[in-house]
Model the fold of this input.
Amino acid sequence: MFENKKKSQNIRLRSMKKNEINSVISLVKKLKLPVEHVLEYNNFFIVAEYQNKIIGCGCLTFYDNNIVEIRSIAVKKRFQKRRVGSKIIKKLFEIAKRKNIHTVYTRTSMKTKGFFLKLEFKEMPKNMILRLFDKCKSCEKYVNNKCDSILMDVNLLE
Ligand SMILES: CC(C)(COP(=O)(O)OP(=O)(O)OC[C@H]1O[C@@H](n2cnc3c(N)ncnc32)[C@H](O)[C@@H]1OP(=O)(O)O)[C@@H](O)C(=O)NCCC(=O)NCCS
Done:
């Protein structure tokens, strides 16, 4: 863990290398996030590195309908609440802006909604989820009215 604030500035954010996929999968798994999509071609993963170790990750997922979603934001437990998650999100914002993307979405839960609110995300009406994410239509949870995802977006131009 960082002994002081200065050390937390030594975190490096960079693109994930191909040979790091397994480390990212194990990090995401440990934090109980879905892993199936980590290998999808439409993801752009970044990692947070501290003392040559991956301590966090996050990705931008690009869909065919020009929708861009932030997914797989994860920070190793003992590094949480030290702004690593915020740094990852801000780096993803920068990358999205460079690609001329004005809005990014996320599907989160009650547990982490507060984190995204701190990063300027706003909650969207639930019914928008189907308009944006086609796959939700065939999700058992959605069909059975058991979907607990919270849809949020952030405008990067504001
Ligand atoms: C959610 C997560 C990425 C946050 O990372 P982090 O490095 O701990 O977050 P930060 O330190 O950058 O937090 C920024 C702010 O959000 C707050 N925050 C962090 N997690 C929060 C949560 N779960 N609920 C409410 N607020 C939260 C922090 O207290 C901090 O607030 P402050 O500015 O008032 O001090 C991390 O807890 C995690 O990996 N969780 C498990 C995986 C997960 O659920 N990912 C999200 C998938 S949608």
Observations:
- The pocket of coenzyme A is lined by residues 31, 33, 73-75, 80-86, 108, 111-112, 114-115, 118 (CB under 6 Å).
- The chain has one domain: 5-155.
- Helices lie at 5-8, 21-30, 84-98, 110-118, 128-132, 140-143.
